[in-house]
Amino acid sequence: MNRVSGAAGTRGGDEWVLRRILDSEVRADPYPLYEEVRAAEPVWVRGRPVVVFASYAACGEVLRDPRASNDRGHSLLFRQTGPADGNRTPSPPAELPSFLFMDPPRHTALRRLAAPDFTPRAVRRLTPMIRELIDDLLDEAAASGRLDGVADLASPLPVTVICRVLGIGTGERDWYRTRSSLLGQAVDPYLAFLGVPAPGLARRRQAEAELTEFFSRLAAERRARPRDDMMSRLLAAETDGERLTDEEVVTTCRLLLNAGHETTVSLIANGLLTLLDRPETLAALRDDPGTAAPAVVEEMLRLQPPLQLVHRHAREDMEVRGTPVPRGTTMVLLLAGANRDGAVFGGCPHAFDAARAEGSQHLSFGLGPHYCLGAPLGRLEAELAFTRFAQRVVAPRLAAGPPGYRPHVVLRGPASLPLSTEGIRDRRMPWEAAAPDT
User: Fold this and answer.
1) Fewer CB within 10 Å, N side or C side of the chain?
2) Which among 364, 341, 343 is positioned nearest to 34, based on CA atoms?
3) Sign of CA dihedral 155, 159, 161, 164
4) 82 or 211, which is more confident?
5) Which helix (H) or strand (E) holds 325?
6) Pairwise CA distance, residues 298 & 100, whole Å
7) What is the tens place of the pLDDT at every residue in 254-296?
């Protein structure tokens, strides 16, 4: 197999598949491209220190390897990039600086401070609030006479929940959502595959500056007048005998706002779209939500992962499934491809099957020290959203043709889901089991 300085794979033409992954025309179904990458694995990007993996074995191995860093400082790609003719220009400054792009021990210390609000026990205490919010959103849709699965449920639910967890006002949730969505495009692999930043760099920098200013003002207010909220706790917390700087608190809260809802928006939106074609699954969610909902969410996570891929950087020379990976190489892991690897998910890996025995082995929340901090909250929100959608929304179906998709590559999901229904049932029906159809 060719090394990082060589051509892209044994067939010499595998690199074009990576460019196709960036194409908006394939956003509705990128999975055949991931299959091609897995068949050709590893795929090297011509002229850049980048290698791409899509098998379950390779992705899992990298996620567990402590030499695979989240710190962009270990990446030759993020230090300097440009065309392969030697006319290189410095890459743009890293966006979204936070503990997400740190390694242990600093990553561990900062993550530990935020973790108490995201444990399974802490998250379960949010169940009444999330249930009430979902019912409020469905009531608003019923009153308006129309229902969009994204605009009316998948989008407002997670951003409102994370705002309440952080202790910030929910009245400007559209303002947060718009800026967070822009920042989400920073992780799209344009730099890795093409050597250029993702489109919209100027708009992302503006959104980042506006969110930073917002959280900086809030941090100053909380230092002067602490409250019983996460930002106040972070401002008062100590690690290694020192308090966090305002910058660390601001970037941590900004990360939690962004990561705390963007992936869940995609999880719920993709899940609703999948459920529309599965009346038997909707019936199971109505009849026995306690059993059906967790299994449905795990299979949704496997089949339609809200985070399609991640980057890791070799802090030293390493080897992945027999492939030498030189120090400084950026490894792009197609988690969405790994989740459909027939070597692990047998039978029909491209089919939805909530009874799949191995379904919970998916990599959608990662592995190792960077396993998703918000996984318990994302699971709970999706379980409750799918359950109540099944219970209250009667005979949902797409009101038009196939939906358009957001511009995001990594945070893939439909932009809207206009639905036609035969009505929305009253919120007084119990959550634990559905009322019979009338």
Assistant:
1) C
2) 341
3) negative
4) 211
5) strand 323-325
6) 24
7) 888 888 789 999 999 999 999 999 999 999 999 999 999 999 9
Residue that the structure tokens 């966090």 belong to: 244
Task: Categorise residue 89: left if φ over 0, alpha if ψ from -120 to 50, beta otherwise.
Answer: beta
> Is 179:169 a contact under the CB 8 Å cutoff?
no
Which strand (E) or helix (H) includes residue 158?
helix 156-166
SS3 for 210-243 is HHHHHHHHHHHHHHHCCCCCHHHHHHHCEECCEE
* Other CB atoms within 10 Å distance of the CB of residue 94: 14
Write the DSSP string, 27-96: TT--HHHHHHHHHH-SEEPTTSSEEEE-SHHHHHHHHH-TTEES-GGG-HHHHEE--TTS--EEPPPPSS
3-class DSSP state of 397: strand
Q: What is the DSSP string of 257-306?
A: HHHHHHHHHHHHHHHHHHHTT-HHHHHHHHH-HHHHHHHHHHHHHHHS-S
CA dist 10 and 22 (Å) reads 22
State the amino acid at position 365 in one-letter form.
Answer: F
Please write down the HEC assignment for all residues of 341-373. Answer: CCCCCCCCCCCCCCCCCCHHHCCCCCCHHHCCC
Bridge partners of residue 50, in order along the sequence: 330
**Residue 86 — very low, low, confident or very high, per pLDDT cuts 50/70/90?**
very low
What are 141-193's pLDDT values in tens digits? 999 999 999 999 999 999 999 999 988 887 888 898 899 999 999 999 999 99
Return the amino acid letter for 332.
V
Residue 426's identity, in one-letter code, is D
Q: What are residue 68's DSSP bridge partners? A: 314
Q: How far is CA 248 from CA 106, 282, 299, in A?
A: 11, 43, 36
Q: Which two tokens stand for residue 337?
A: 């491809």
Fold of 15-420: Cytochrome p450 (1.10.630)
Residue ranges per domain, the chain? 15-420
The structure tokens listed for 437 are 């159809």
Mode of pairing for the β-strands spanning 50-53 and 330-333: parallel
Peptide bond into 42 cis (omega under 30): yes
Of the candidates 126, 108, 204, 209, the one whose C-alpha atom is nearest the C-alpha of residue 166 is 126
Main-chain phi, psi angles of 313, to 5 degrees: -130, 130
